[in-house]
Amino acid sequence: PSDRGAIISHASPALMARYLACSATLPLAAKESVQALTAAASHLRSGGLVAFPTETVYGLGAHALDETAVLSIFATKKRPLSDPVIVHVLAGEDALALAQLTDGEREVFDLLAKRFWPGPLTIVARAAPNVPKCVTAGTGFAGLRAPRHPVARALLETSQLPIAAPSANLFGHVSPTTAQHVLDDFKTCNNVLVLDGGASDVGIESTVVKVCERSGGSHVDVHVLRRGIITPTDIADSLRASIVDVALASHQRIVQNDTTEGQHAPGQMLTHYAPNIPAFIVDDCAGNAPATQDQRAPVTLPACAILDFGGQLSQYRSEALWYSDLSPEGDIVVAIRALYAGLRAAEVVPRAEAVLLPRVAGTADTREHAEALHDRLYRAASGLHCTIDQYTVRLSS
Known about the structure:
By secondary structure, the chain is of the alpha/beta class. It has helices at residues 31-45, 67-77, 92-96, 103-116, 133-136, 150-159, 179-186, 232-238, 332-347, 367-380; strands spanning 7-11, 18-19, 49-52, 59-63, 86-88, 121-126, 141-145, 163-164, 192-196, 207-213, 220-226, 246-250, 279-284, 299-300, 304-308, 322-325, 354-357, 385-389, 392-395.
């Protein structure tokens, strides 16, 4: 909502998650919100880190053109330098100052920005020389996005800086959709300010597309590198007016977490968005699928937290330690919005040894959103599937 304001919190070893300013329901023009945004902007300009809300998830931001500040994001998150960070800007013209585009790439960029910005789309383009190498993971390409959340936009306007920001969580952990999630991960970090703008209303990270003209300039390739709430169909529809030939394709990469190869988009690692206890996607509720001999002992249902979708695993509700359904009605968008809060709730269930997750397929109308949700569930489980056989959970072949 456009009237949401900002709380500022300074997390430090001495002051654990202490709120210092106003209620998140106050307007941005309120004195407390203006003071919070002014303090956050000053902190960014001095090389500090600010966690702030976007419509997708909360971001951990630094001045994008200050290499030392950006490197502190990696150190704070324990994030490998092979994983790039997205640069947030107010508008298309601000993004263009950070990119090098051919005429064909510029036309595609303009069509995408006009249709989806401000909003949950990141456009990856060849970076301008002033963009630090650590922003691009050494690839020479930078992800650029204009967020629509009013607090994010107010911070960008107040600071007058491009803000590099991955999700505001420890690397590989479940992404944060509230300020409390951020504080849970960074409660002892003394260089982080947290702006609270309420819960993120999309709930998963932005769709990422890379725009790159082919050698010779005959086509512009648009590659979907990460699924999000904006679908490939949405992107294809936005490019119908292009006067240059555009080839659209999706590339879902699964990269081992120990890779040193620079990635063109975040969210490519096998283990990502993961709870702090093991997670598994349930393949066969009837126990008919074969089980492998795994070095780990099998887990019993009474030691499991179940995060369900559409009631698929409801038959095990009474035997499980904890049960929650992202959307009992099977609404994919509702489930996406609830996913990360659900995973964070599951990981802190007392005595829970594992989280069981559902398979997600979707209908013809919801398939693309289902693929985005499945991508997060798959990486949260590190690609591991299981079966349930007489209330014992075993890894699937």
